[in-house]
Amino acid sequence: MSFAKRKRDLYIWFRRKTEATHLVLEPKSIEQLRFYQFKTTTAQFFYNRLKKTDIRVVDTPHYQFARALAENDLGKTSEAEQYYRDYIACSWQTDDNDKISKRIDEFREHFELFRDGKIPPSTPVLTQLGKAGDLFVVDGNHRTSFSAALQRPLKCDKWPLDLAFLYFSYSSRFYGSGHRNMPYQSIYLQFENILQGRRDDAIKRLQMIPAEALQGATILDVASNFGMSSIIAKHMGAKSCLGIEQAPDIVDYANRFAMFNGVYPDVKFRAFDLDKDQLEQNFKATTAFMFSIHDHLKHPEKLIDIARDHVSKYVIFEGHPHGLRENYAAFFDSGLFKDIREIGRLSFSAHDEREAAGRILWICEKN
User: Fold this and answer.
1) Overall domain count for the chain
2) pTM
3) What is the pLDDT of residue 177?
């Protein structure tokens, strides 16, 4: 085990011991806990089925199946089992019926043991989004569902959001001891910063963008990371946003927070390797965000291809720290733009003094 891993584990252990709080929830409160563990596939699954983004314990297949088993209603059990089968197939991205049936059998067995008191109910982990936000089930969907279905109180632990995110949503791409165990971007819920990141200027950056490039726009967010730019843009008047990001786990987190913010599926994200993948030929956005991505690409000329083929009006281009216009000459002088102008400088980074010189933000209007 690496020193960094040991240090991180010790940090999490200490914070769990000192900051976790213990709750006992009654069944009605358990039913209203919100679902946390969305992946890209399950976000679409729940939206297609329920046409909403606010998914509670009572909405989940876990609860519906457990409730039917508790009531011993064969008709309801068959319907609820199919709901759970569909969910597993979507979540696991499999059509292997044997594998799914094994999971169903495990669920039934686990429920019966829980009902009969033959296994101790291990403690689910909850967290809260925002100062007065709802409680979310971060770990323990089965246990919370069983308790609610059987109308039994349940002991839970409540963790601070940053600790729950660090432990259950860890991604080595954006964490590390040198970055104070923070994600790259701050996470927002309805404009409230609920999880501090290494960069917390997403709102300030979008406020620099002229209204004509944002209001009613269809946006392509290139290298969208956790998706905050797209989510906030939707709140500020964009019509829709598609974020493309290389790391599939980060894409899952972005779609999760789109669900939490109530903007899915107008805002959604997909896995996309800028150096290898191609957008659909007929895809066109009115505005593209290209924020601090140029120097991370093996083939930065791909940004020219995207701007040429998939953007109709504006590119909002952010340079890297200390980056000047001449550093991106190939892009700016590609012949695609009739006007390029600086619209602001992001001169403040909360946790890195090296970025004090700022990142320049340009708006590029296409010919």
Assistant:
1) 2
2) 0.92
3) 40
